[in-house]
Amino acid sequence: MRRSKTALILATTVATLAAGGLMSAPAQGAQQANQPKRRIARTAPTWVAHTKAIGAAPRAGMSTFRVYLAPQGGLEALKADVAKVSSPQSATYRKFISAKQYHAKYDATAATAATVSNWLRTNDLKVTSTEAHRRYLSVVGSNAAVEKAFSTSMKQFKHSGRTVQANTTAVAVPADIAPLVTTVTGLDTTPRLMEHHAQPPVGFRNGRPCSKFYGQVAASTQADFKTPLPKFKGATLPYAVCGYTGPQYRAAYQQGSKLDGSGTKVAITDAYAAPTIAKDAQRYATDNGDGGYTTGQLVQSVPSKFTHQAACDPSGWYGEETLDVEAVHAMAPRAIIL
To answer: 195-204, pLDDT tens digit by residue?
Structure first.
């Protein structure tokens, strides 16, 4: 009698939970499993078609990747709005919005993130974090789970001199998930090797006219010294200072001091290694009264390869590195610079 009563209570509880939707996840997962899947364009590495796999990726091996979520209204609608802002024929031409307005209007919804996250979890993939504005989900899971969830194969390849793993076909997701996902990245583990050949930019020059000291030349006319310039808040401001040289800085801040950096080393950390640093620094020093560099006084050490994926304008860094070296030599002309 007790067993019958207990069984009745359990059956009633299960029925109540199911009716309230609290046990819908397995049903939803089963429903999605029976749905046709859609391939997401451009999610397969293009190089796999030209490279022979050396074997299957270990099924227990882990993949770490991102699933990017569609913006509110869909990606195509967002692109259309961007085009309108840039089109003179549009009523919204040049009517730009703030970052806050953009996030409010276009960020993927919490419901979108929850739906995609739930689908990933039902496929044994773990969502480790959600980007602050719900641009993407960070996901980790076994290669076996990736293959099953995205209907693709994970293979190992020899690519760019390394053993890597990658998906062999574009990933596929259930039909009701497809509109919520724009792309999936990270399944291809090939590192991007940055080998920059950009030429250094031309040397920086102050605009003319400029002042030898602050307030020397009033900005009352343009560079032709004829065309009038408007005042700013009722006042005429001076042109910017032309730039101080090393001897001027040393006279201002080290007057009477014998400190010149002798016996010291200064380390500078920059990026992308300006290829003309020695020549540029030598030219600047001799042209501006700092004195040239002795043998071994300027040493540049670089790693064998740059492997960071974010290319941050290498030629722009050349000027930054040169400025740093010139500034140190200007204040401490006998210091060794690394």
So the answer is: 655 566 666 6
